[in-house]
Amino acid sequence: MEGSSLLPLQRALGYTFADEGLLLTALTHTSFSNENKSTSKSNERIEFLGDAVLGLTISHILFHRYPTASEGVLSLYRQYLVCEATLARVAQRLSLGSYLRLGRGEERQGGREKRSILADATEALFAAIFLDAGEEAGGILADIMTKLFHDELLACERLRSGDYKSRLQQLVEQDGNERLNYRVASVQGPVHDPIFHVEALLNTNVIGKGVGRSKQEAEQLAAREALLLFGAKNL
């Protein structure tokens, strides 16, 4: 992969690498490295650093963006922003899959679209920028991530409204295999003034219960209880 072919990616990032070798390493999957042991190293090691870079930079962004938010709320937002599903979406916005260096077998198996591979490459990409940018890395990465995570940061803004159902949905979406549903367990009281008992279910497991004078209110309270179960504080 020649340096000129990486220019569109660098333009999308808003960052030009002084050492394009770092960028190339970030884009190299283990499957490619295994087939080219003498000339290429995979992004596994740099991705390890990228995980820490991502967590610190996102924490810094959230800390300044929400000066009155509690530690629990900030942790909830960070968990959503750094999860595999979010990182894969960021990778898709950058068309990162098209730049990856994959082994022949992984290529045949659709590796360019695999969420785990895209997420790992995104972390490796952030580490490459961190190493390349030197003393200016913190500010540069904060600017880049604020832009790349724009939609997800707006989602966090909406979650501050107290919409517990949306907040819980964001958490559940981190794992595409999980399914969140609500069911009315019972309705008590007269027809003109009912009280709804609602359960929040993750797959078939009850993770929260709520009671309200409308189905919507009870669902919100069930979602709030589920968030507390997941470790959210000061909701």
Strand order of the largest sheet: 1-2-3
Fraction of residues in helix? 55-70%
Query: Which range does the strand content fall in?
Result: 5-15%
Q: In the CATH hierarchy, what is the superfamily of the largest domain? A: Ribonuclease III domain
Reading the helices and strands in chain order gives HHHHHHHHHHHEEEH
Count, helices: 12
Distance between the termini: 49 Å
Q: Count the E strands.
A: 3
What structural class do you assign from the helix and strand content?
A: mainly alpha
What does the overall shape look like?
Answer: elongated
The tally of domains stands at: 2
**pLDDT < 50 runs, ≥5 residues:** none
Give the CATH architecture of the largest domain.
Answer: Orthogonal Bundle
- Average pLDDT score: 89
